[in-house]
Amino acid sequence: MNQADVSKLVSKLRIKVPPKHRKLSSPQGPEGRLNKLRKTVTGLIKYERIELNYRRADEARQYAERLISEAISHGDCHKPTMEIADYWLLEKQLVHKLFKVLVPRYENCNTAFTKMYKAPQAYYGRHIDKAVLELRGNPYPTLTNKQSNNRLLLQNVLLDAAKYDYRQAKYAEMAEKLGKTEEVKSGQSNEDRNKPSN
Amino acid sequence: MSLVIRKSTVEILCAAKWIFRRDCRLLSTLPEKTEIVVDEKERIPGRKTRSYNPILENRHVYPEFLPDPNPNWRNSLREKMERADMLKRRSQIDIPEFYVGSILAVTISDPHAQGKTNRFVGICIERKGCGLRAEFTLRNVVDHQGIEVRYELYDPTIQSIQVLRLEKRLDDKLLYLRDALPEYCTFPLDMDPEILPEGTPVPINPVQVKLKPRPWLERWERQELKGVSNIEEHLKEKDRVRRELRKTPWEKYDLMKNYRKTIPAEEQSEIWNEVYNQLQQMRVSRKKMSRKRTVTTPKTQLA
I want to staple B31 with a disulfide (CB 3.0 to 4.6 A). Which of A94, B35, B85, B263 is the partner? Predict the structure, then answer.
């Protein structure tokens, strides 16, 4: 049983954190692993949506979430946070993006800052899980195709047209029925009228 | 023609707006991109103070109330029951605030002699464990022999814990006192308690100890200790080279490693909300009791 480290306060991550880190094989050991992840995190902050292997994406996602949450909780006047941002973002203009674009974007966010999807694998070649990692609120079109409420979706247009046709057919039928009964009634009344005269 | 005119009027309007904003920035509700920087700088102090919660300061005083950070060993029900048991034990005896580096006197009922007690005085060199298994180690030198006793904080055989000198040291663990000269951890067994005036922060003792020559129990030179003064005297060139090779400067940037070592602030505030009231009540009642005692003792002396 270990005592929790109380020297620093961290805010809770909104994603699932596995109990142990993943080893990303690297000849430089743990330092090399972090160097790999630094490249990925930099790419994620820069492009906002990247496709990569699942293991590395899941690992980099945790680090990106931590980086953004640190930036939100301490701001850019906090020296250790600035050092951390300087270490994790290899391109230094992204430090400005982190504090001036991403922090205001996620300040009042109640969910995780990133999203990860499983991507399809290549049919030929080695079986490697792929993933798409993206920042929430990015400018690209959504990856999920769930647009069941979109009125302009082709299926919805066809369904609307079919419903319209069905309704029109029904109306026509009803109108026909009404017309027939009226004809019958009028015929009957005509007969009634004709009867006494005859 | 009409389109062209409309466009030009819009442009004129935009230009007028831009000039207006340049002149009086404070009035503009929709600042331009270049002005965002200025606004950010004004807003930042507010953002920094947002996350501060004074109840979280308890984590330094009662670190054993926080659960183990390893998620494989977490069990919310067990943790809650342990906290209740700890509070019950604390209502029985006074477990004072102390830190690594404080000098304590612990009285336990002697396991080998019925009805007798055993008192040990020493400097706290390590605190570890969480929940009911929290423990601390005291070290002293008695008759030129270094002695360490490890006590469990919530052990029912403990009769009293008294803080003789409340202070912190420069390091989180003082295990290097084992290899230090004996005068740095020699304390008289009849030491008098030093009382700090109320409301003062816990003082940090900046003393730097001197280590004995090698062999040592651990490779102290690799641990970046602040409380050791003469570590370089005992090193060979080989040790310095290996220390450089063994350094891990990237570890402080490993955000997830640090995250896995701690309990997040949200979970901590839940725990402190649960136990803080009772702890505070106990502290207040203890203070009242001690005041009563201080009032009564001089009367007896006079009589």
Answer: B35
DSSP string for residues in A117-177: EEEPPPSSS----EEEEEETT-SSPPS----TT-TTSHHHHHHHHHHHHHHHHHHHHHHHH
Residue type, position B204, single letter: I
Is A3's CB within 8 Å of B128's CB? Answer: yes
Whole-number Å distance between alpha carbons of B183 and B209: 9
What's the pLDDT tens digit per position in B139-158? 999 999 999 999 999 999 99
CA distance A121 to chain B (A): 28
Q: Is the torsion defined by CA of B20, B26, B28, B30 positive or negative?
A: positive
Indicate yes or no: pTM above 0.80: no
Q: A6: which 2 tokens?
A: 């109380």
CB-CB under 8 Å, A75 with B44 = yes
Regarding an ipTM greater than 0.95, the answer is no
Residue with tokens 């026509």: A172
Smallest Cβ–Cβ distance between B255 and the set A66, A73, A76 belongs to: A66
Residue of A nearest to B53 (CA): A9
Within 8 A of B126 by CB-CB distance, chain A residues are none
CA distance A104 to A98: 9
Those residues whose C-beta lies under 8 Å from the C-beta of residue B12, and which sit 6 or more positions away, are none
Bin B138: left if φ > 0, else alpha if -120 < ψ < 50, else beta: beta
Residue-wise pLDDT for B238-296, tens only, equals 999 999 999 999 999 999 999 999 999 999 999 999 999 999 999 999 989 888 876 65
- How far apart CA B192 and CA B188 sit, in angstroms, is 9
Cα dihedral A28, A30, A33, A39, rounded to 10, equals: -90
Q: Hey, are the CB atoms on A8 and B69 less than 8 Å from each other?
A: no
Contacts of A30 in chain B (CB under 8 A): 248, 250, 254
Q: What class does CATH assign to A3-135?
A: alpha beta
Nearest to A77 among B48, B260, B267 (CB): B48
Record: contact A1-B129, CB cut-off 8 A: yes
Sequence ranges of the domains in chain B: 5-34+49-286
| pLDDT tens track for A21-56 | 999 999 999 999 999 999 999 999 999 999 999 999
Tell me the chain A residues in contact with residue B253 when contact means C-beta distances shorter than 8 Å. 34, 83-84, 87-88
Task: Report d(CA A47, CA B83) in Å as an integer.
Answer: 47
Does residue A61 contact residue A15 with C-beta atoms inside 8 Å?
A: yes
